[in-house]
Amino acid sequence: MRISLAGSLGLAASLTVLAGCGTSVSHQASPPQYKVWSVSKNAWQTTPFVDKNGAVVIAMASWCKYCAWEAKWEEPQLLRWGREHHIRVVLVDISPRGGIGIAGPQDNASAGTDGSGQFLGSSAHGLKVLEATLKRYAATYHLPLAALTIDPADTTVFAKKAQELPAIFLVSPGGRITRTFQGTTPASSIESAFAAP
Known about the structure:
- By secondary structure, the protein is α/β, with parallel strands linked by helices.
- It has one domain: Glutaredoxin.
- The protein is built from 5 helices and 7 strands; from the N terminus they run H-E-E-E-H-E-H-E-H-E-E-H.
- A 7-stranded mixed β-sheet has the order 2-1-5-4-3-6-7.
């Protein structure tokens, strides 16, 4: 993501002049906050998800073979890219059911297998079982625990807007969804879309 320093300075100067004339300046609102279960912290967390330059939020399910495919073949690259560009990459499990999907080969996401498990709901017991499942998922697919969160009651906008699993959302630093991908998507496509104006 490129930011023109000259353009930013010009805008800041314009706003300063307007503010000096008695015109009120509206400051950018803070990003929305979402209450999710943090797997690494073993606790509820209120978070905007975004890093300095925004976020990639992946609505997924541990049991989903397509999510497993993303986790195995695309997310390691996406997580590296996110760290390099100060863009947070976070996975939000929006389907509280046990089981871990088996990823298909890199050239065939549909050749994987959905995991099986009972519906866990959003009870304290169900959340703990799903958290344990996601810890195994992270170990299986070599994902950092800090990237994994759970939205067991589908309260986030990402759960509400997911039409397929995985659903991938590009989020601005202010927390606005700027682009959505439904289904498996190459990391390179996500990175290119994030960099596009």
